[in-house]
Amino acid sequence: MQVSVKISVLAISVVIAIIGAPGVAQMVRSAESGTVNLQFDPPTGLENPITVSSGDLVWTSIARPLHVVRLLDEAPERIRPQKGHVVAQGSLLWGLQLNGGLAYCPSIDYDAPVARVQCFRDFNDDSVFDGRYLSRQYGNNSSLLPAFVRALAPSLQMRFEPADPGHTLDVVIRVNFDRWHRNQAQFRIWIEGERLDNRLTCEPINNRPGLCTLRGLTLQITQINNQTSITLIDVQANRIGGIISQWTG
Q1: Is residue 22 pLDDT above 70, yes or no?
Q2: Domain map of the chain by residue range?
């Protein structure tokens, strides 16, 4: 079961780029928002039933990118339209799902004066990057949430291979109770201290009063006056969800 957190909808131009196999023209977008697919560990904080009010923490979880590769060749600096720094050989890159394929980005140094990175794409599935984008940090403290990728251009060919990131790219997810809306419990998600824009609704299970599902969790949620009782009923194995990158253009 996959769950997507939709933050924004964007309108973008479509361009034709000659990228990938020689002589093959592909219709690709020069700029677009994408989805960072994450795999979640079991939640912490719901081992016992809890009672919360609006704004209270409900659970935390460790998440990591679902798609990770290792760069086998150094990615040189990009000068135009803005500077994109060198990406070192051996760097781990995480996958950003775009229309028709994955772009791969390095972790973003949010302490840098300009938190901007190069992201790369393999258009012909030969484990060699042949296109590159520019992106930058989404929030003030996030290494894993890019703004949209843009300025697609051909790239020097750089090899990559699938990689196991271990705990290198782990991020902390925090889920707070927000409110009741139309008799449904709603929550807010924080990733690396950055609050995502939209609310998540725990979706009711038919004919099961008080039971609902949210990001692979089955919860029993009851409103009692100004407080809310939450009990964890079940945890789906291999929970996967998507965080959509923010369009800030």
Answers
A1: no
A2: 11-33+67-162, 35-64+168-244
